[in-house]
Design brief:
It contains 9 helices and 5 strands. α1 crosses α8. The strands form 2 sheets. A 3-stranded antiparallel β-sheet has the order 1-3-2, with helices on both faces. With 181 residues, it is an alpha+beta fold.
């Protein structure tokens, strides 16, 4: 089931410390990506984590793991709503937002508003969009445009979670035990 991928790239989301995670799955072994995601969802949905394929081609797929209740909250913040509506999102409908994000992935290599869907601070998402990915203070889990010291602490926490989850997964070999509700 390739659970190691979730540990490597989504452990902070599994630990309920991050709204969502995104990673690219390089399909070098002709794995049925849709089946893999279906199996992950069978285990994770009961823990309130959902996995979606945002974009898929024969060689790779962008995999999105998220917590719907946290995402709904973020999508309905006033400033966030305004930004997303400028990109065509209807923020009162979570499914529409996910589907629109998939659509945006098809027309752009990397829709910059995705940072909102990953739980990045709005100030950094806007900074990234306005600066076209340049002039950032630091680059960690995302490009930071404000409050550098605070973000460094967050990045260090995320790194510690990932290390801990790798150790725990080696011990338990069961992703459901590592997914916190």
């Amino acid at each position: 089931m390739n659970e190691e991928l979730l540990i490597d790239y989504a452990s902070q989301t599994l630990a309920n410390k991050k709204l969502a995670s995104l990673f690219t799955f390089k399909n070098t072994k002709n794995i049925d990506i849709e089946k893999m995601v279906f199996e992950w969802n069978e285990v994770l949905n009961e823990k309130n984590v959902y996995v979606e394929i945002l974009n898929n081609n024969k060689s790779s797929a962008q995999i999105y793991a998220y917590r719907p209740h946290k995402l709904k909250y973020v999508l309905n913040e006033t400033k966030t709503k305004s930004l997303l509506e400028s990109f065509g999102y209807k923020t009162n409908d979570l499914n529409q937002c996910i589907n629109h994000l998939k659509f945006r992935y098809k027309i752009e290599d990397f829709p910059h508003e995705i940072g909102i869907f990953l739980g990045y601070p709005l100030e950094d998402v806007i900074g990234f969009i306005e600066n076209k990915g340049n002039k950032f203070l630091i680059n960690g889990y995302w490009k930071v445009y404000a409050n550098e010291d605070q973000k460094i602490k967050i990045f260090n926490n995320y790194n510690n979670i990932k290390k801990s989850y790798k150790i725990l997964f080696k011990r338990y070999k069961d992703i459901s035990k590592l997914c916190l509700s």
